[in-house]
């Protein structure tokens, strides 16, 4: 398979580490990994040729304008969790600006990370997510609603991860995994309790494997795709 030029944002995050590792170790594509703080990326970027570490920030994405014109696949995993203005700026404005810098004559696919938190049980956009969700969830809802207006909307593959587990001694833990030590202290008591509710989950490794496949298998005829990533529904009682 002919190597592609891939631009990856969010490489230093939990999911980003698994994405970078899979793309480095399991493909021969030329990779451009955008990170704000290179020291936070624990993946071996010297494992093979064709891996480029770019220090930068989505706030200044225009500094990579010339490079982005040559990119065939953009994997947009970066996200902001902070204050309302930062979250909206990164998750909506700068994400769309990056997509706008891609060359329609070169770019064959954009893999955009949203979240299943903006979907209802029928996997349709949940209006309440944009009204009463957290700053993060509202920003993801707004961005997803605006994506069809972009010139490259037909190149989009949107992935909606459910609850994400992941992390180890070399990778940062996801928000969910980071909280498990506190939960397990109460597991002896929790097993006697009963709770209503159920949820889906997925490990960051599995997300990376899905993305690795998508990179090499873009949608035919430039049709946008939407994929919800998660294991079968599990009840809270079953999980405990």
How does this structure look, described?
This protein has 240 residues and is an alpha/beta fold. It has 10 helices and 11 strands. The protein has helices at 14-26, 65-68, 84-101, 129-132, 135-146, 175-178, 180-184, 187-190, 204-216, 236-239; strands at 5-9, 30-35, 51-55, 73-76, 109-113, 156-161, 163-165, 198-199, 201-203, 225-229, 234-235. It has a 7-stranded parallel β-sheet, covered by helices on one side. Helix 1 links the parallel strand 1 and strand 2 (30-35). It is globular and about 45 Å long.
The mean pLDDT is: 87
Q: Biggest β-sheet: count, sense, barrel?
A: 7 strands, parallel
Q: Structural class, judged by helices and strands?
A: alpha/beta
Q: Which stretches are poorly predicted, pLDDT < 50 over at least 5 residues? A: 234-240
- Residue share in β-strands: 15-25%
Please give the radius of gyration in angstroms: 18 Å
Helix content: 25-40%
Q: Give the CA-based shape.
A: globular
Order of helices and strands: EHEEHEHEHHEEHHHEEHEEH
What's the N-to-C terminus distance? 44 Å
- Tally of helical runs: 10
Query: In which order are the strands of the major sheet placed?
Result: 3-2-1-4-5-6-10
What's the total number of strands?
A: 11
Q: Which terms summarize this structure?
A:
single chain; 240 residues; alpha/beta; seven-stranded parallel sheet; 10 helices; 19% strand; disordered C terminus
Task: Set out the fold topology.
Blueprint: E1 5-9, H1 14-26, E2 30-35, E3 51-55, H2 65-68, E4 73-76, H3 84-101, E5 109-113, H4 129-132, H5 135-146, E6 156-161, E7 163-165, H6 175-178, H7 180-184, H8 187-190, E8 198-199, E9 201-203, H9 204-216, E10 225-229, E11 234-235, H10 236-239
Parallel strand pairs: 1-2, 1-4, 2-3, 4-5, 5-6, 6-10, 7-9
Antiparallel strand pairs: 8-11
């Amino acid at each position: 398979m002919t190597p592609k030029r891939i631009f990856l944002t969010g490489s230093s995050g939990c999911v980003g580490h698994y994405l970078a590792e899979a793309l480095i170790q399991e493909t021969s594509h030329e990779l451009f990994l955008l990170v704000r703080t290179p020291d936070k990326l624990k993946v071996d970027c010297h494992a093979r040729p064709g891996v480029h570490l770019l220090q930068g920030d989505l706030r200044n994405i225009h500094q990579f304008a010339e490079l982005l014109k040559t990119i065939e696949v953009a994997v947009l995993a970066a996200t902001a969790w902070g204050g309302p203005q930062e979250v909206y700026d990164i998750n909506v404005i700068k994400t769309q600006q990056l997509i706008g810098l891609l060359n329609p004559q070169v770019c064959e696919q954009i893999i955009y990370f949203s979240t299943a938190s903006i979907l209802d049980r029928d996997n349709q956009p949940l209006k309440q997510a944009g009204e009463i969700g957290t700053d993060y969830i509202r920003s993801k809802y707004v961005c997803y609603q605006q994506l069809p207006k972009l010139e490259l909307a037909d190149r989009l593959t949107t992935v909606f991860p459910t609850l994400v587990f992941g992390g180890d001694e070399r990778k940062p833990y996801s928000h969910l995994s980071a909280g498990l030590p506190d939960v397990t202290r109460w597991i002896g008591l929790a097993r006697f309790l009963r709770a209503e509710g159920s949820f889906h989950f997925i490990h960051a490794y599995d997300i990376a494997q899905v993305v690795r496949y998508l990179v090499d298998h873009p949608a035919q005829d430039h049709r946008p795709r939407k994929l919800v990533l998660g294991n079968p529904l599990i009840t809270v009682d079953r999980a405990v």
